[in-house]
């Protein structure tokens, strides 16, 4: 509980930093993955590391900006996080977010490490409202809290707003990395199926708000597929596994093509994967059409049904 309280404090601080920042000033540097860093990326990263260290409960922390296991001097848990997912769209004033996962012990990566071993996960959405959705091992469902601002200082409070227990079938889709449809016939067949069957497109380019809408609306699917020419960029440790934990606790499904994203081994900080989140039937359709069979140019099944 203490670890989560300190993460909530950090996310509150990030929310205020975003309001005070133009958000687009470049730091002139890249992280080790080659992603360009904005000043707000580094401020968000520093806030999370500071609060994790101050908690005294975190032995190891690792972020997408500092992708190694960093000793923080506490004991009990280790935390992996993306401090500001979607920072490239801040300049357009689109919603962005923070993603984090909490594991027991003092090691985040290894041959036997998976997302299913998480004790908690969360994602904060910084949009017209600031909300955070938490999933905790011993509590059924995923649960949303909203930051209530007193408009005079950084002393706002997190207030419970709602819980999520089910993601139903429904015609809503958010397709990431659409360039992969050029050489992944399965993904092209899946997108064609959605369009020809009258699905509603809802996609912002930020994974956090695009997945958050599945929880809020209680239906639909988010997909970010890969191909030989257009590789998946989502990182299992920092993004995919924590969000999979939230979605599955909320009654939805996740898949990397052949298995739940929670069952894929996290053998390093830079393991990348495609992913689908959503309702049971939609994720099954993703596995049937996309799976991991089309990277070599094999043909897609004739039917999406």
Task: Give your account of this protein's structure.
Helices cover 27% and strands 29% of the residues. α1 runs antiparallel to α2 and α3 (185-196) crosses α6. It is α+β, with helices and mostly antiparallel strands. The termini are far apart. The model is unreliable at 297-305 (pLDDT under 50). The chain contains 6 helices and 15 strands. The protein is globular, with a radius of gyration of 19 Å.
Q: Features of this protein?
A:
305 residues, alpha+beta, five-stranded mixed β-sheet, 6 helices, 27% helix, 29% strand, globular, disordered C terminus
Round the mean pLDDT to the nearest integer and report it. Answer: 91
- Compressed to H and E, one letter per element, the order equals HEEHEEEEEEEEEHEHEHEEH
- Content-based structural category: alpha+beta
Shape: globular
Share of helix, binned: 25-40%
What is the CA-CA span between the terminal residues?
44 Å
Strand content: 25-35%
Largest sheet: 8 strands, mixed
